[in-house]
Amino acid sequence: MIDILFWALAVVSVASGVAVFVVDSMARATYALAVSFIAVGIMLVMVGLEYIGIITILMMVMEMAIMAVYMVMFMGMNPALMPMDMTHNKRWSAVLAMGTFVLLAAGALLIPWPARVGAPAVDLVASLGEAIMGPKMLAMLTISPVLFATIIAGLVIVNPRGRYDRWGDDLKHRPPNDPLRGGLGQ
Amino acid sequence: MSEPIVQVSPAWAVLAPLALLLFALAGAGLNGALVARSVGRPGRSGASAPLAQVARLLRQRRQVTVAADVLLWRIGAGGLVVVAILKILVIPLGPWTLADLDVGVVWFNTMDVMIWALFWLIGWGANSAHSLVGGYRFLSLAVSYELPLMFALITPAVAARSLRVGDVVAAQHDLWFVIWMPVAFVIFCGSVIAFSSWGPFATAVGRDIAGGFLTDVSGVDRLLILTGRYAVLTAGAAFAVPLFLGGGGGALLPDWLWSIVKTALVLAAFVAIRHRVPTIRPDRFAEVAWIIVLPAALLQVLVVAIIVVGS
C-alpha cells in the first residue's frame, strides 16, 4: 500500500514536471511545477523526513505563487497572458539533455562503486547534521555574516529610493517624499 | 484536567470536516445576524441568511467567462475547503487529535501558504481584470502578513521546545501562552483574518474592484469559495486554542468541550471584528507590517527565548 502510494507520487512528480513544458500557459506551467514539488515533499515525509518534506512543500508553493507573478510580469509584450509555447531552442536543448543523461548514466554504471564499510548510525538525521555541520561550524560562522553583509550591500546599491530621495539632499525635508501615500509616512 | 494528547483512529476523520463545516456555518450565521442588525432588521432574520444563500447558489447556473482557465479556476475554488480540512487534522479536540505530527505547527503553516496559491488561482482563472487584481492584491497582502505569522507560530513552539501541537498544549499546563506572549497572539489572530481574506484584510474581494476574485465566480464555485473562507477562518480560530489558549485546559467542563467553547469564542471575535474595523489598504499595510509588526514579532520571540533558556 505504502509502496503503491510512493510510486504513484513518483509518477505524479515526474508527469507534472513534464507538464511544465507541455502546457501552453505560464500559470499552468508554474503550478504544474508546484504539484511536482508537493509530490516530492510528500515522498520525503514518507521516507521519514517529516520536517524537510513539509518545509519543501511550504517553501515551494510560496515560491511558485510569487514566481507566477514575476513570470507573467517579465514576459515581454505579455504573451504570458495568452497561450504560449513553454519550450524554445529545442534542438540544442534536446542535444544537451541527451548528452547530460548519457554522461551521468554512463558514470553511474561504469564507476566501480566502493562496497559499504561500517553500519548506518542509529539516528541518521542527527549524524547527518553532525557530519555536515560539526567540523565546518567555523566556516559557517564566517560565511554567514559575509553573506548577510552581501545581501545588505546589494539592497543598498539597488535601492531605488534611498533616504536622500525621501528627505531631500540635506535630509531635512519633512514630511518625506513618499510615492506610496499612507502607511507610516516613510 | 489537561490530559495528554492522544492520536485517535483515522475513522474519526469523517467527523472532523462535519464539525468544521458546522462551525463555519455558525460563523456565517453570526455574520448574517450582525449584518441584519446593522441595517435595522432583527438579527434572527440574518442568521438564517447563509442557509438561504447555500440553497440559492446550489441552484444557480454557472456563468462562464471568455477564455477562462477552467482547470485552475476550479482547483482554486475547490481547494479552500480541502486546505481547511487538512489544517484541522493537527488541531486537538480536548485530548484527541487526528494526526499527532512531530511538526504540526509547520504543517499548519504549510496549509496556510497553500491559500496563497488558491486565491491567486481563483483570481487568475476567471480571465477577468477585477478578478486578477483581487488575486494579486491577496499576494501583496500575503507577503506582508506571512513572515510575522511565521514568527508568531514559532513563538509557542520555542516556549514548548517542540513543534508538536500536543507538546505545545502540555507546556501551557500552568500558564496559558496568551498571557506571556500577547504580541504573538495578536499577530497570529490578525494573520488568520488576513489569510481568510476577511474583515479589515478583505481588500482582495473589495467592493472597489467589484468583488475582486469573487467577481466572476457563481453557483457551486462561489459556494465552495465562501464556505472555504469561513472554514479557514474557523481552522485559524481553532488553532489559536492549542497554540495560545491552553488547548482543552479549563475548570469544570471536560477538555473536549473547552476546546469547542474556546474555538467558538475566538471565531465569534474574528467574525465580529469585520463589523468594527475599517478595511486596510494592502499597499499601506505593507510598510506597517515590515517596520512595526515584524520587529514586534521578533522581539516577542526573543523575550520568550530568553525566558525559556533562563528557566
Draw up the topology in text.
The complex is a heterodimer of chains A (186) and B (311).
Chain A: H1 2-22, H2 26-46, H3 50-74, H4 90-110, H5 124-133, H6 137-158, H7 163-167
Helix pairs in contact in A: 1-2, 2-3
Chain B: E1 6-7, H1 15-38, H2 43-47, H3 49-59, H4 70-88, E2 96-97, H5 104-125, H6 129-160, H7 165-170, H8 177-180, H9 182-195, H10 219-244, H11 255-273, H12 282-310
Parallel strand pairs in B: 1-2
Protein architecture, described:
The complex is a heterodimer of chains A (186) and B (311). Chain A is mostly helical and 186 residues long. The termini of chain A are far apart. By secondary structure, chain B is mainly alpha-helical. Chain B has one domain. A two-stranded parallel ribbon of chain B has the order 1-2. Classes of the chains: A mainly alpha (186), B mainly alpha (311). At the A-B interface, helix 2 and helix 3 of A face helix 4, helix 5, helix 6 and helix 12 of B.
Features:
heterodimer; A: 186 residues; 2 domains; 0% strand; B: 311 residues; mainly alpha; two-stranded parallel ribbon; 68% helix
Distance between the termini of chain A: 58 Å
Radius of gyration of chain B: 19 Å
Given the structure, what is the number of helices of chain A?
Answer: 7
Query: How many domains make up the 3D coordinates of chain A?
Result: 2
Order of strands, widest sheet of chain B? 1-2
Summarize the main sheet of chain A: none
Q: Please bin the fraction of helical residues of chain A.
A: 55-70%
Low-confidence stretches of chain A: none
- In terms of DSSP E residues, the strand content of chain A is under 5%
Largest sheet of chain B: 2 strands, parallel
SSE order of chain B in H/E notation? EHHHHEHHHHHHHH
How many DSSP-defined strands of chain B? 2
Mean pLDDT of chain B: 89
- Cα end-to-end separation of chain B: 24 Å
Order of helices and strands of chain A: HHHHHHH
Shape of chain B: globular
Roughly what fraction of the amino acids of chain B lie in strands?
A: under 5%
| Overall domain count of chain B | 1
